[in-house]
Amino acid sequence: MQTHILGYPRIGAKRELKFALEAYWNGLSGRETLSEIARELRHQNWQAQIDNQLGFITVNDFSLYDHVLDHSQLLGVIPERFQDGSSDAFDTYFRMARGRAPSGTDQRACAMTKWFDTNYHYLVPELSADQVFELNPGKLLTELREAKQLGHPVKPVLLGPITYLWLAKSCQADFDRLSLLPSLLRTYQLLFELLADEGVEWIQIDEPALVLELEADWVNAYTTAYQQLSNPRIKTLLTTYFGGLGSKLEQIAHLPVAGFHLDLTRSGNDYLKLASLLDQDQILSLGVIDGRNIWKSDLTQLSDQLQSLAGKLGERLWLSSACSLLHVPVDLEQEQALDAELKSWLCFARQKLAELNILASVLGGDPTDALDDNFLALKARRASTRIHQPAVKARLTSITPSDASRSSPYAERAPLQRERLNLPLYPTTTIGSFPQTSDIRQARSALRSGKLSAGEYEYVMKQQIKTCIESQQRYGLDMLVHGEAERNDMVEYFAEFLEGYAVSQYGWVQSYGSRCVKPPIIFGDVSRPEPITVGWSRYAQSLTDKPVKGMLTGPVTMLQWAFVRDDQPRATTCLQIALAIRDEVCDLEQAGIHAIQIDEPAIREGLPLLASEWQAYLDWATFAFRVSASGVKNDTQIHTHMCYSQFNDIMPAIADMDADVITIETSRSNMRLLEAFADFDYPNEIGPGVYDIHSPNLPAVADMVRLIELAEQQIPAERLWVNPDCGLKTRGWKEVSAALINMVAAAKTLRENRLLGKTA
Ligand code: GLN
Ligand code: ZN
Fold first, then answer.
1. Which pLDDT tens digit goes with each residue over 318-363?
2. Contacts of 668 by beta carbon, 8 Å cutoff, 6+ apart
3. Strand 521-527 vs strand 548-553: parallel, antiparallel, or unpaired?
4. 729 CA: nearest ligand 1 atom
5. In this structure, which residue's CA is closest to atom 5 in ligand 1?
6. 430 alpha carbon to ligand 2 midpoint, in Å?
7. Are residue 657 and residue 746 in the same domain, yes or no?
8. What's the CA-to-centroid distance between 666 and ligand 1, angstroms?
9. Nearest CA to ligand 1 atom 6
10. Is the pLDDT reported for residue 658 higher than 90?
11. Cβ atoms of 64 and 38 closer than 8 Å
12. Inside any domain, residue 245
């Protein structure tokens, strides 16, 4: 039985690519070194596929930065600002990605955005109305020839034309990207010829946009495209993932392609319908192995499910990963931080190759002991006492609607909070973190390596908190924070203390370019055995008369930025986390902390791909947030924070969270976010970020005053806060000091202007 994968992680098991890229960008090594490391990684990836007896090795899934950027380069889609002759193709690629490269002049980088509903970010192609496509197949052909040398069948992967246009943005407002389709298709035709000349039999052509809710002209474009691309010299596998085909299924089933790939984990019964519509010579590739999570597959269940289809289709049934394995860590084998029992439940990219091999043997009528091992591992996981905590389950069932609402509405809470917190008009605050200096990082690594005892580490952190509080007092901020010195990461920090979470050592996944994240693993019922942040916050509050804001990560973000257990609905897991955070919120209040921020930067990115599924998600997500926030008295002020400004479409849900104060990013969009507030009357307080913390430029007082005045057109001054647009951990103290001093001056100006306005 034919097996393959849609793609493999490219960063390397120990993030070799990340370090090689950064060394090259920083001028510490040459491009030969980078290219050599990249070649070695590709080789390892292919060898892993060969070792696990996959039918094909997949080619062109590797990328030095991003596969969509590679595709732009392949098609010659290079925005004009990079065509200044100041760098060759190698560095132009990095200039497009990051705005700069070792050679060439700096330019505004291409925009980056999330790849469907994953945490991977791609570089958005920029198309113009008179766009010319020109094939640049150097990278593709190099990798293809490298792979062929291994003497194993190869299958190049390409991004499909419609998805490419869909992901792109047009530089001119009034032009339709689909108008470029005819010339784009001619370029693909040439590309197909080229690949056929290279002896390629199959190409995987990725069209994930097909799973979205598309307008009719986009759906019809698929028919146009694949009719025109049909070529007797080459076989195309039309590949979709992250969802099913929905009402488009019949139309797509009739396209003249050699085969289809479906994401079996996310497309319900589409595979049966599609199988019944196949022509005699078409194949069906089923994405049976989850590419988005790290659990062992239930191979027994899969083989039962697919037995009869395998009998019917014979060699025309292929087995694959559901999507590219890009979204899971590379290799479980090297993992040291996870214990043996937990590891026996898990499966990273490399282990997923073995699963494919096992399932193919079984379905091909060749039973193997490995199937029994898989069965026993899953059975042991289900029965493990580490997963099921009766007390957590009982608590969950006893949640009532009143647990998810504050005792009084905002209008009644606000005056009580104002009195207790004693805040001026336009109160100033920050989002939580202060610079993570090398001192802090060194202390943390000394603690890890045992060079620093827990007590010594605590002392160092307390010194940091003290400096942080003193600095904020000097700047004249109204509501202080402890600065988050003790946190490596806003999710991992809490995961380390919560029951039901595990933190890996090498579970890295690419987020964009050289940037990787290490999501913790939620394997069991979540609870909080003891207070996590209370000691730090209480200490910080003891140093000042100003209110210190407690700082927590919210349940949706704690879920969204983790690998989540697959044996119960996400909503259930989220609610368990919410209860754990609620305990922390209540303990903070008990300890004399009267403002508590529950960060939810990930709430928007949890939205399902299909708009028809949004409301159900928003309902449980906002419910979980309210459960985490509603255990406190009326005069305790709950804050929340979100990054990124595309909230316009979920404003009612954000209001539904009922935080007393929300701080958000707006400065980069020049308060455009606030247009949303024109259409929707946000009832509570809001801190629209007045400066962009991602920029090294010092924000001017006048600019910040102007931004708040703009905000005042939508939101009354009594409900406005003055704050940066995100946490300050990536910045240095010097710039932070200068910026916050200006920000406090801006608030002062606003108060004075208002007094003058009143007396006038
Ligand atoms: N409190 C966090 C910080 O200040 C929030 C981070 C975030 O928005 N992603 O760093
Ligand atoms: Zn933020």
1. 999 999 999 999 999 999 999 999 999 999 999 999 999 999 999 9
2. 645, 692, 694, 725
3. unpaired
4. 10
5. 727
6. 10
7. yes
8. 15
9. 727
10. yes
11. yes
12. yes
567 located within any domain: yes
Residue 668: pLDDT band by 50, 70, 90 thresholds? low
User: Is residue 171 located within the same domain as residue 263?
Assistant: yes
Q: Which of 119, 431, 644, 723 to mutate to test the pocket of ligand 1 (most atoms within 8 A of CB)?
A: 431
Kindly state whether residues 371 and 266 are assigned to the same domain. Answer: yes
Cβ 270 vs Cβ 262: under 8 Å: yes
CB crowding 23-49: b at 16 or more within 10 Å, else e? ebbeeebeeeebeebbeebbebbbebb
The answer to whether residue 392 sits within a structural domain is no
The per-residue pLDDT for 759 is: 46
* pLDDT at residue 695, as a whole number: 83
8 domain-assigned:
no
Q: Are residues 435 and 324 in the same domain?
A: no
pLDDT at 704: 95
Protein residue with least CA distance to atom 3, ligand 1 = 727
Is 142 in the same domain as 263?
yes
- Is the whole model's pTM more than 0.90, yes or no? yes
How many angstroms separate the alpha carbon of residue 53 from the centre of ligand 2? Answer: 45
Which residue of the set 254, 261, 327, 694 is catalytic? 694
Domain boundary among 358, 382, 406: 382
Q: Is residue 200's pLDDT more than 80?
A: yes
pLDDT at 673 (0 to 100): 65
What is the gyration radius of the CA atoms in the chain, in angstroms?
Answer: 27
> Which ligand is closest in space to the CA of residue 730?
1
Q: Measured in angstroms, how far is the CA atom of residue 358 from the centroid of ligand 1?
A: 43
Query: What is the CA(432)–ligand 1 centre distance, in A?
Result: 6
Take atom 1 of ligand 1 and give the residue whose Cα is closest: 432
Domain count, the chain: 2
Q: Supply the pLDDT for residue 499.
A: 98
Burial class (CB in 10 A: 0-12, 13-18, 19+), 393: middle
In this structure, the residue with its CA closest to atom 10 of ligand 1 is 727
If one counts every other C-beta atom within 10 angstroms of the C-beta of residue 442, the result is 13
Q: CA nearest 424: which of 378, 505, 478, 463?
A: 478
Q: Grade residue 645 by pLDDT with cuts at 50, 70 and 90.
A: low
| 67-101 pLDDT, tens digit each | 999 999 999 999 999 999 999 999 999 999 999 99
Instruction: Tell which one of 599, 604, 663, 692 to mutate to probe ligand 1, the residue whose CB is within 8 A of the most ligand atoms.
Output: 599
Any idea which ligand is nearest the CA of 552?
Answer: 1
Check whether 402 has a pLDDT greater than 90: yes
Domain boundary among 359, 382, 405: 382
pLDDT band per the 50, 70, 90 thresholds, residue 672: low
pLDDT of residue 758: 57
Ligand with minimal distance to 431 CA: 1
Residues 377 and 425 in one domain: no
We report the CATH number of the domain holding residue 158 as 3.20.20.210
pLDDT band at 140 (very low <50, low <70, confident <90, very high): very high
In this model, does residue 608 exceed pLDDT 50? yes
Note the pLDDT tens digit of each residue in 732-742: 999 999 999 99
pLDDT tens track for 505-519: 999 999 999 999 999
Q: What average pLDDT is seen over the chain?
A: 96
Which residue shows structure tokens 């100033």?
Answer: 428
Q: Which domain holds residue 49?
A: 16-382
Is 694 assigned a catalytic role?
yes
Using CB atoms within 10 A of its CB, is residue 374 exposed (0-12), middle (13-18) or buried (19+)? Answer: buried
Q: Which residues line ligand 1 (CB under 6 A)?
A: 431-433, 490, 551, 599, 601, 641, 643, 726-727, 729
Closest CA to 146 of 256, 42, 19: 42
Ligand 1 atom with the smallest distance to the CA of 642 is 8
Do 367 and 420 reside in the same domain of the chain? no
Considering the domain architecture, whether residues 512 and 619 belong to the same structural domain is answered as yes
Q: Is residue 437 classed exposed, middle or buried when 0-12, 13-18 and 19+ CB atoms within 10 A define those classes?
A: middle
What is the CA(430)–ligand 1 centre distance, in A? 10
